[in-house]
Design a protein that fits this description.
Length: 166
Amino acid sequence: MAGVKEMLDSAAAIARGMRVTLREMFSPTVTETYPDEPPRFQERYRGRHVLERDENGLEKCVACFLCAAACPADCIYIEAAENTSEVRISGGERYAKVYNIDYSRCIFCGYCVEACPTDAITHGHGFELASYSTASLIYRKEQLLRPWPAEARAGEPCEQRAAAVG
């Protein structure tokens, strides 16, 4: 009698499993066509960092080092330099001469974004960070800085300032 009960229980378990399988087999599929279309992310997605510019094209980063201090992975490296009257890079007294993020260490926690008093660093939607070499995972300021729009560059002295520093 116990053998018959075990067989019925086993048959019921198989039937429940097949019911789930059949239900999923006939439901519509949700397919990402990633290489052909860009993926759609939620607004809060934490991708590759972006160093922002202000409305005049100047860098927002004033090299206060708060993002580097807040980073638990210690992946942000900054060197500060002073703005001069001839060459103005940021709106503050200083600017980040060197701003590196080591993505082989970054855990995308967002503490750097929260710590920034000028909203200079944000999370973008960049997600293609795979590499065969850890040296290529160190992103420099030039790679992180949001490009100034091409139509605003026509007569903009910001481009000349960047050329004078670089």
